Amino acid sequence: MYVDSHCHINxxxxxxxxxxxxxxxxxxxVTHALCVSVDLPDFPQVLALAEQYPxxxxxVGVHPDYTETPEPSAAQLVALAQxxxxxxxxxxxxxxxxxxxxxxxxxxxxxxxxRASRLSRKPLIIHTRAAAADTIRILQEEGAGTDQGGVxxxxxxxxxxxxxxxxxxxxxxxxxxxxxxxxxxxxxxxxVAKALPLERLLLETDSPYLAPMPHRGKMNEPGFVCHVGxxxxxxxxxxxxxxxxxxxxxxxxxFQFADQG
Length: 261
Known about the structure:
Strand order of the largest sheet: 1-2-3-4-5-6-7-8
Order of helices and strands: EHHEHEHEHEHEHEHEHH
CATH architecture: Alpha-Beta Barrel
Number of strands: 8
Radius of gyration: 17 Å
Largest sheet: 8 strands, parallel
Distance between the termini: 14 Å
Shape: globular
């Protein structure tokens, strides 16, 4: 049994094949998936999927890479997060890899999401790329994390160092690995995953992107999260069933508003 803790099945390339996508999830033992919001105009699509399918959950947030989109306020995010099918705030965070120049607007957007998480008591889904130091700093400044009485969350599609992972875990965050973990070129990331406690790990696809081996280069989908789990079990030298059980339990511990039914 697996949970895909981060996917985008509302994106057109997956939404057009939704019955097939859901069937493949079932065939591969993927019982639940979290469909993650990237902007407010498309949030109704995300929510509609979660309302229609009891094993699909929704988040609400605006991705740091989206420039031409309405800026969310903490109050607006909190209001949208009141829906019972919304289990998280995000994805949010910082990305200094794709965007350059004055990115103060990105940091302010991130702060609005952290404040919404604290107010709604729903966990954060964090995207960070080439911005780890500022990501951790702003989380600390805004009182995110259980160590400061806030709500924690997950560092999704993690590709940073062990030091960054441990700093996030110390704040109460979980670390989620995508198909990147299975790539032959990801030796440093594999070493990080091997060093971290299974009790703080989640699995994800980030589909339709980053398909794991043996599907690399193809369109990704939630059913492929099983390959990430299998790779992690081999990497750690532990039974696959243990990876399935612990990462699933981790998901429902973090996203406590998710109904396991």
